[in-house]
Design goal:
4-stranded mixed beta sheet, alpha/beta, 4 helices, 8 strands, globular
Length: about 170
Amino acid sequence: IEPTVSSENLEIVTLTGKLSGSGYDQDLPTVAIVTHYDSFGLAPSLSNSGDSGGSGVAAALELARLFSMLYSNSQYKPKYNIFFVLTGGGKLNYFGTKYFIEDMLEDSDSFLLTDVDYAICLDALAGGSELFLHVSKPPKEGTKAHELVNHLNQSSHIFHDTKVTLNHKKI
């Protein structure tokens, strides 16, 4: 559990977990799996977040459970670190995530963020049959990112013809 962000009327907690891959941590690439756990509504009873925050948290916890079983066996342990981040403040312009990144860059474990190959943001996963990949620039042919997009497109038929859409925007 990371330090709590405090403001006059705001308290946000970030939960983190890490699975270390096979090899020296700082030499391994890192995959970050990120989601937010909160919702927002004018009336607390109307802050339904089953899809927005809830589906991302459920997916992150299940991925952590499955990957921890894989990582517990040295025979199958991948050569990647997996870094799980659950932040608050998602509905407040991602305030918790921004604070976490700023704080983490000053930490001795900052290599976890600077060496991230992929950041997978889990949000609103239950709302349809479309998977949105937000990228700062379209992946070039021959790169790992392009390979990932191809694998997702090729396997989309397994998941009821889920459509994979690239959204190109500054992140």
